[in-house]
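Handoff note, outgoing to incoming analyst
You'll be picking up this chain. Sequence as last confirmed:
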Amino acid sequence: MNARVLDDRARVPADISVPEMEKLLGLALARGGSFSDLYFQHHQTSSILLEEGIIRTASAGVTCGLGVRVIAGERTGYAYTDDLSWAAMARAASTAAHIASDSKTLPPQPVSPAPVERRYGEATVGVLGLTDRIAIVERADRAARSFDPRIEKVIVSLADETKRVRIANSAGVLVEDVQPLFSIRVSVIAADKGVRREGSSGGGGRIGPEFFEEKPPEYFAREAARMAITLLAAKEAPAGAMPVVLGPGWPGILLHEAVGHGLEGDFNRKGTSAFAGRIGERVASPGVTVVDDGTPASAAIDDVRMYMPTTRPGSPLPHAELEDRDGNRLPMMKLVRPGRFLLIAGEEGAAWCDAAGKLAEAAHLPIDAVRIGHATGDYRDPRCTWLRHREISPRGAVLVRPDRFVGWRSIDAAADPLAALRGAMCAIELVADPATKEPLDAARMGAIATNALRQGVIVLTAGTYGNVLRLLPPINIDEALLADGLDVVNEAMLTSLAP
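Most recent structure output, in case you need it:
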């Protein structure tokens, strides 16, 4: 093997030039793909373990390599090499390109360095010589043993690593970082009259040897020894079968591992989850007391153990899987478009849809209107899921807010659907000059909406000139909450319109 090959294999990420990175990105996208990135890493580690007063083990290591990723739609190709010669890197880029090939080719942009805010130094205790690092663990050993004569065993470890990373992508961005880390750990065993107890303490961080100026190795040694000696006199904890109640906080991890992954968006979007298409349905046993929705339940239902889908104002829109006129399936939630109201009428509620169209045109309000029935309407409900939950007659209507909560409903037909809808929509028109009625500008209207949202009240803008604040409180709101909401809106207007 010639010296050139040996030199290439001995390269580290810092040796890779920008032109080489650009060529690799070109290879990665040669077979199509919308994005590609290169991840170079050089990882250097070392550790020392002192036990029974002697250095039991000492180690050092280096890992180095390149990872290539190519994204094409929903496909992602990965490839890796720990050989940074050009031939090996080119093979990795080509392999990733084959995995995520696409008919559309997007050439990479020229690569240029981007600034990265450094949050820590470039070195840890690894900058110290071996003799100095051995002295650190020996100091900890002596301090632990001198704490109490009942200390019979001391183990001290000192480990550090320095990770150097370079990332370049097809958008033309190159970033570099150095990530140092070290830790010191002291474990102590104390024994007295046949009782043995263990104590441990440690520290570290992304910092250099100056760490020991504030907390020297003796600090951790004495803390570990103190714990072990204290435990010698500790009473045994009660044992046996006990009732366990999981409160909020860390116990949520148990719930996450049990059902959380099945609830993640990707699995539900692709339909591979057991919960896909079941929004608004009870999927747990009645014995599971996890409350995931704030909807008030009927008086006959235990509101802790069961959620009942409903269209009562103030409740989230129940989920149902519908079909359009071409037979394509879609969830009910898809009908609620961002920033727009949705009027859902029964199969005989054409008058409500006509009224919604007239109100949208006259008041410049973004309202969509649809009819949903089992076999007729703009959308069909073949499984009767919506029919079971809608709680209105075929001639009734439900008005859904842009946040997908029900704001108003009419159980049956109304003598004047337009007047009924107009009464459901509350609005405030704002002008810059009361005399001329000049509409308030869009910038200040947006500021009012933003300030109200920060305090928990959603208001939207409407009107020909965008100077109308739309309010849609649930019909079952009490006077106290309504007053609080109006106070928030008033405060938002005063703050936004202050000179």
